Amino acid sequence: MKIQDFKTFMELQAIQQFTNNNIKNTNSSRSVFQDMLSSLVSGDALEGTSQTLGSLLSNVEAETKSFLQPGGLTYMNINPISTAHANNQSSETATNYDHIISQAASLYNLPEKLIKSVIKQESNFNPEATSYAGATGLMQLMPATAKSLGVDDAADPEQNIMGGSKYLSQMMARYDGDIQVALAAYNAGPGNVDKYNGIPPFKETQNYVQKVFGTFSS
Question: Which residue in 150, 90, 152 sits closest to 119, CA to CA?
């Protein structure tokens, strides 16, 4: 586990403690943090930990928001979990990156529509999208993942698409071309997919696979 990952986890745990002290029904919250801790410390899930942490943060955000109901607790003007989609809406469309996507699809033997579907879900085609955990760019690459893929500047659309497509192609090869399982690995990390022998039982990951595959299949 990297120090930054542990620091982020501890910050999230503090958020959980805050909600636990104010809300009686915390079973769902505890489950999310248990899944995260298990994913971060399990020997089977160390591969792709940074990418996994960024994915699990979205799940924690949803759980935390479900507790902060109008008339009860307030957000106190803080946004502890800031996802790529929350404050970084973009007017960019797929056509702005079609030539890069086409090159990546050809180089890594992926359907162009699959790459576009991942970008749509990850950043809504916003090259400046960032997440609280540090994921960056169109395909939301975590720093450690980007480095392992040879990406020097994850904010650069071409490098990001090429790097993200390379990673997606690795997941496709690893799971024998099973698109849905490969998408789960892209979102939650291959360690978790291996651990659960398929799509992990994380609500965020299951929703992610459903949305991306739905876009791809439509």
Answer: 90
92 CA to centre of own chain = 20
Q: Closest by alpha carbon to 164, among 97, 83, 211, 91?
A: 97
For the question of residue 122 being annotated catalytic, the response is yes
In 3D space, the residue among 186, 182, 179 whose CA is nearest the CA of residue 163 turns out to be 186
Is the CB of residue 194 less than 8 Å from the CB of residue 53? no
Identity of the amino acid at 37: L
The residue annotated as part of the active site, out of 61, 63, 122, 204, is: 122
pLDDT tens per residue across span 96-140 = 999 999 999 999 999 999 999 999 999 999 999 999 989 999 999
Backbone angles phi, psi at 130, to 5 degrees: -135, 155
pTM for the whole thing?
A: 0.64
One-letter amino acid identity for 90?
Answer: S
Q: What is the pLDDT of residues 53-88, one digit of tens each?
A: 555 555 444 444 333 333 333 333 333 334 444 444
* 40/31 Cα distance (integer angstroms): 14
pLDDT in tens, 9-52: 555 555 555 444 444 444 444 444 455 555 554 444 444 545 65
Tell the burial category of 3 from Cβ atoms under 10 Å away from its Cβ (0-12, 13-18, 19+): exposed
What is the number of other CB atoms lying within 10 angstroms of the CB of residue 194?
Answer: 16
Cα–Cα dist 49/40, whole Å:
6
Adjacent-strand bridge partners of 136:
130, 141
